[in-house]
Design a protein that fits this description.
With about 110 residues, the protein is an all-alpha fold. It is built from 3 helices and no strands.
Length: about 110
């Protein structure tokens, strides 16, 4: 948008979009965290004598990253704790991409 709109139009459009994003994302985050916890506790399965299988390892990594993002987001939204690591959206976005890729590799 910044390439096609003037600076003023860009700021106005961005703020108009962000108003709606700020209303939806916290609820989507809560749904994602709780559905991830459900999946972890109901699909993880038993640990064999040989240890964790590849599905369980990838699910554990995915759960850790998801919980970390969820806790950070909830703390920031509900308690106003601003994270030191999240100076931009690039790091959380990268973690979301990693979580999506892990989801795809879990079933190989």
């Amino acid at each position: 948008m910044s390439e096609t709109l003037s600076e003023k139009e860009y700021k106005t459009a961005r703020e108009a979009i962000m108003m709606h994003v700020r209303k939806v994302v916290p609820y989507a985050l809560v749904v994602a965290v709780f559905s991830g916890l459900y999946m972890f506790f109901h699909i993880f399965g038993e640990i064999s004598e040989d240890g964790l299988n590849s599905f369980q390892i990838l699910l554990s990594i995915k759960a850790f990253l998801g919980l970390w993002l969820g806790v950070r987001g909830i703390n920031q939204k509900l308690f106003g704790i601003n994270p030191f690591v999240f100076k931009s959206h690039l790091f959380p976005f990268s973690l979301v991409i990693i979580i999506i890729l892990l989801s795809q590799f879990m079933y190989l």
